[in-house]
Amino acid sequence: EAGVTQSPTHLIKTRGQQATLRCSPISGHTSVYWYQQALGLGLQFLLWYDEGEERNRGNFPPRFSGRQFPNYSSELNVNALELEDSALYLCASSPDPSSSYNEQFFGPGTRLTVL
Amino acid sequence: KNEVEQSPQNLTAQEGEFITINCSYSVGISALHWLQQHPGGGIVSLFMLSSGKKKHGRLIATINIQEKHSSLHITASHPRDSAVYICAVINYNTDKLIFGTGTRLQVFP
Fold it and tell me: B interface mutation test: which of A33, A106, A112, A113 has the most B CBs within 10 A?
């Protein structure tokens, strides 16, 4: 069974640009979560999507947004990039939408560098 | 003060040693995760527990809800166990996942 996949592996942008990160969950999983791990900091919860809807959101500004498609894949968009947005962005999927954080399966991450 | 605290922050061990990593939290939770992050960033979910104890191979996780404390134990540690171990709790009220800052473990042969 294929795991959670993310693309691209690395992404380099300049300040002010927009970044789009993609995630494909494990087949059969309907929930997708996004996390940010900035250098020297722990993981922080960004967004949770389930069945195409945003279910919960972390303490991030509105320029962090996303969506979930009918096939349950997801995009994370970061607008007006700032230097401190440089981080590893992790996606995770979960099979059980009734419990917000059942066991999660993590993808390999996308490393975003903002210059 | 962080809502989830882990100790120690860094841990070195000789191969074969018994390892304990601790996690304390200050919020009401519905469940707690132990995660393993290898160099390069890949994360593996080790356990999710809401009470008692779980065991998988050489790994054991326990939780005491009354004391708001969880421990991750590694028996017969091996160099391949070298990684960052992260504790994360689901806040019962907000339904959000809150992460500890991790414990960096290095096991030497």
Answer: A106
